[in-house]
Amino acid sequence: MIRTIFFVCALLLFTGSLSAQSIKNKAGNAIVLATVNGEEITQADIDLFYQELPDQMKQIPIEQVQNQILDRLIDQQLILGEAKKARLDKRPDIERKLAYEKTKILNESYLEIVLEKEVTPERIREVYNRAIALEEKREEIKARHILVKTEAEALDIINALKRGGDFISLAKERSTGPSGKNGGDLGFFTADQMVPPFSKAAYALRKGETSDKPVQTQFGWHVIKVEDRRLAGARPFQELEPQIREQLVTKAYEKIIQQFRKTAKIEKMNLGTSGFQRVQ
Length: 280
Known about the structure:
Chitinase A, domain 3, four-stranded antiparallel beta sheet
């Protein structure tokens, strides 16, 4: 709750930003921006505070809020000074909390460094390439059709096409199917997505070819034109990359922990219902 108050206050009452001259020099972000009872606040402290803000707040550039963040850091130092005067940092419960936070930060920092070496962009791409090589590929075709009620109508359309008629225009004018208004466009589909007689006739055509005989199904008579063919089945890298990264991180973490456990001396209590028992 208190942390949230600091975050919210940092974004209230914008009054401008620190000038570039006042925050950068040859020392980088180590330049001192304020002192509170002798304790220094640097640009690095502002950067760290900003990174801890919720994502929606970080949509605002740091340059626009760094004055407000500096004020909040000054407030924190004032409160910290009073907390130390009250010797709160010596209370056992607070010492445990501080130790826990320190452990968590060190854990996260160590894993970040190690996993960055293990889970590289090249490794992710390698896993992706191996995965799609094993993934089943299916041929898809992109086709249009004109659906009519009788074989005679379908033959008449085929003859019109042979005389130079436009397939899309004829589909819009004469097709009784729902795709007629879109020029008979069916998009890409696999063989199992259409009724067998239609799929058999469509897959027998090459790219750019139109059926020279009407195709009958339970829906009526079709004239089919194949516009494209492709192999499908492999999902794009952008879609799989987060999933692969997560899998590699999990495997790398498990590997690291297993190595540490092999050489560590670990004693723990069995937290059973019958009481504590020491186990190795």
